[in-house]
Specification:
- By secondary structure, this protein is α/β, with parallel strands linked by helices.
- It has one domain: Arginase, Chain A.
- The protein contains 10 helices and 12 strands.
- An 8-stranded parallel sheet has the order 4-1-5-12-11-6-9-10, with helices on both faces. The protein has a two-stranded antiparallel ribbon with strand order 2-3. A two-stranded antiparallel ribbon has the order 7-8.
- The longest helix is centred in the C-terminal third of the chain and has 19 residues.
- The chain is globular.
C-alpha cells in the first residue's frame, strides 16, 4: 500500500475505509491508468437488465460485497500471502456504457480483471469488445434464450440471452458447466447442442473437473446460481442440486497454472441475503480467486 503500511492498516482500518469509501478488502482505489503489467484489478458492475425475475438489488451487489469484505483481513494463511502487499486494486463501479472499455484497458495494460456484481448481461458488456476464448460459463442455466422469453419478444441484451449473443458475436469456444435449470426452455438446450457447445451437467461437475476446467479456459464467468440453493440462496434464480461454495474454493486452491485472464461473479442479490451472509461467502471466494492469480505470478 502506498499511503499506509500494512501494520498500520490493521490498526487504522476503520479510518482507512472511511477515506476509501469501502473498497474491496480496503485495497487502494485507483484509476485505469494506474493499472500496470501484472496488476490484479477488481471492478464493480452496476448492470441490470429486463427480466421476469425480481432484481433484488443486483445493481448494488458490488457495493454490498465491498462493505462485507472489510470483515476480512486479506491474509490467505494457506498461501502465506497478504493481498495488501501485492498489486491488487479496486477500479470502482462501471455501467454497461463503460465497463467493456475498462476491462479492455486492464487487459491491454497486462493486468487481470475480476468483475463483481450486476446481472449476467455484465459478461456480454465486459467481453463484447475483447475476444477471450475459450470461455467457461459456470451457471445453472444456459442463457441461450431466443427471440422470445415467456411469450414476450426480446430484442435487447438481457441476462437470459447473453451467452447466445456472445457466441454469435465472437464465435467463442465455450463450455457450460453446472447446468440443471428448471427455468430453461427446451429450445435453448437444442440450440446449444446444435452449435456443439460443450455442456457439462451439474451431476458431472466434480471438484477435480472444475479445477481442470478453470485451468483450461481463458475467461471464467460465475453466476452464483451455479451453487446449490441449499448453500447459497441469494441468487436471482436459485436452483437445487448444484455445487457448494467450498467446492469452488477447493478447486481454486489446487490451481497453480492456468490460462485464465478474466474472471467475473454475477447475479448476487443483496435483498435476498439476510445478514449479508452470502456477501461474506463471496468475499472469501474473491480472496481465493486473487490468491490463484498471485500464485500464477500476478499481483
Amino acid at each position: 500500500m502506498n499511503e499506509i503500511g500494512i501494520k498500520d492498516f490493521y490498526l487504522h482500518k476503520g479510518e482507512l475505509m472511511k477515506k476509501l469509501k469501502y473498497t474491496f478488502f480496503g485495497i487502494p482505489h485507483v484509476k485505469l491508468y494506474d493499472v500496470t503489467n501484472r496488476t490484479i484489478a477488481l471492478l464493480g458492475s452496476t448492470i441490470l437488465t429486463k427480466s421476469i425475475h425480481s432484481p433484488c438489488g443486483i445493481n448494488k451487489a458490488a457495493d454490498v460485497i465491498r462493505k462485507a469484505s472489510i470483515e476480512y483481513t486479506g491474509f490467505l494463511s494457506h498461501l502465506d500471502i497478504e493481498i495488501h502487499e501485492r498489486d491488487v486494486v479496486d477500479l470502482g463501479n462501471f455501467s454497461r456504457e463503460n465497463i467493456g472499455r475498462a476491462v479492455m484497458g486492464v487487459l491491454e495494460n497486462g493486468g487481470i480483471p475480476i468483475v463483481i456484481g450486476g446481472d449476467h448481461a455484465t459478461t456480454y458488456y465486459t467481453l463484447s469488445e475483447v475476444e477471450l476464448s475459450p470461455l467457461l460459463w459456470l451457471d445453472a442455466h444456459l442463457d441461450f434464450a431466443l427471440k422470445t422469453f415467456h411469450g414476450e419478444r426480446i430484442n435487447d441484451v438481457f441476462h437470459g440471452n447473453v451467452l447466445r449473443l456472445l457466441v454469435e458475436k465472437h464465435n467463442l469456444e465455450t463450455t457450460i458447466a453446472g447446468f440443471r435449470g428448471y427455468s430453461t426452455f427446451g429450445e435453448e438446450l437444442k440450440s446449444v447442442q446444435k452449435l456443439g457447445i460443450k455442456l457439462i451437467f451439474a451431476e458431472e461437475t466434480t471438484t477435480e473437473r472444475l479445477k481442470k476446467l478453470i485451468e483450461e479456459h481463458v475467461a471464467v464467468s460465475l453466476d452464483v446460481d451455479f451453487f446449490d440453493a441449499t448453500y447459497f440462496n441469494a441468487a436471482r434464480v436459485p436452483e437445487l442440486c448444484g455445487m457448494k461454495p467450498s467446492d469452488l474454493i477447493i478447486a481454486l486452491r489446487n490451481i497453480n497454472h492456468s490460462k485464465v485472464r478474466y474472471f467475473d461473479i454475477v447475479e448476487y442479490c443483496p435483498r435476498n441475503d439476510i445478514g449479508y451472509v452470502h456477501a461474506k461467502i463471496l468475499s472469501q471466494i474473491i480472496l481465493e480467486i486473487i490468491g490463484m492469480f498471485i500464485k500464477m505470478g500476478y499481483g
